[in-house]
């Protein structure tokens, strides 16, 4: 009987914490913007991650809409464009290039195979590995993919100078590298611990 009372108390405590969190969020979001505790405080929460997330989501929406008739999704574009430059690359090297795991690569290329844009063949030198090739149908859509990506990039950088565009690209590349290195190091530290 005692354990039932304890779990009831814990649930009430968790509910109370949730209510406080919701009240805090509402007070931040709907307070008077000139009030020091109001929307001005919200700017402190506008991080790089939030901005990158918004850009990524809007980019996916834009590209998915633009390429709907081709039945290509935004996440498949980089792979198709890479194959346009380096046809016959191994599935593993595609994953390494984009820093994606094997399962994600497999799920991403499966619809492209079904649509007839690419083929996947066993590597004659290593029967455990697969090579990925563009079909003629895949080659035919590369210019459309490139144009869609260029248009989106131009939308994002509409009021940027050439110097600002280059700087933004360099900074985003460095951030990407930093994120990858950090997680790679965390993973190896975790493996060492146990």
Give a brief rundown of this model:
This protein has 194 residues and is mainly α. It has helices at 2-30, 39-42, 48-66, 77-85, 91-98, 102-114, 136-156, 162-193, and strands at residues 118-122, 130-134. Helix 3 packs across helix 7, helix 4 (77-85) crosses helix 7 (136-156) and helix 5 crosses helix 6.
What does this structure look like?
By secondary structure, the protein is mostly helical. It has 3 domains: 44 residues; 109 residues, Winged helix-like DNA-binding domain superfamily/Winged helix DNA-binding domain (Arc Repressor Mutant, subunit A), CATH 1.10.10.10; 38 residues. 70% of the residues lie in helices and 5% in strands. It has 8 helices and 2 strands; from the N terminus they run ααααααββαα. Strands 1-2 form a two-stranded antiparallel ribbon. Strand 1 and strand 2 form a beta hairpin. Helix 3 crosses helix 7 and helix 4 crosses helix 7. The longest helix is centred in the C-terminal third of the chain and has 32 residues. It is extended. About 4% of the residues have low confidence.
């Amino acid at each position: 009987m005692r354990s039932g009372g304890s779990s009831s108390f814990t649930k009430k405590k968790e509910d109370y914490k949730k209510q406080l969190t919701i009240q805090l969020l509402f007070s931040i979001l709907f307070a008077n913007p000139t009030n020091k505790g109001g929307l001005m405080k919200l700017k402190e929460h506008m991080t790089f991650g939030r901005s990158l997330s918004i850009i990524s989501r809007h980019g996916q929406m834009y590209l998915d809409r633009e390429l709907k008739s081709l039945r290509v999704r935004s996440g498949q574009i980089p792979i198709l464009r890479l194959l346009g430059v380096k046809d016959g690359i191994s599935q593993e090297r595609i994953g390494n290039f984009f820093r994606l795991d094997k399962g994600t690569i497999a799920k991403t290329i499966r619809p492209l195979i079904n649509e007839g844009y690419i083929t996947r063949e066993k590597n004659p030198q290593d029967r455990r590995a697969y090579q990925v090739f563009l079909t003629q149908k895949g080659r035919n859509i590369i210019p459309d993919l490139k144009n869609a990506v260029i248009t989106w990039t131009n939308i994002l950088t509409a009021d940027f100078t050439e110097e600002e565009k280059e700087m933004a690209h360099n900074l985003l590349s460095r951030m990407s590298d930093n994120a990858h290195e950090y997680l790679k190091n965390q993973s190896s530290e975790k493996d060492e611990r146990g």
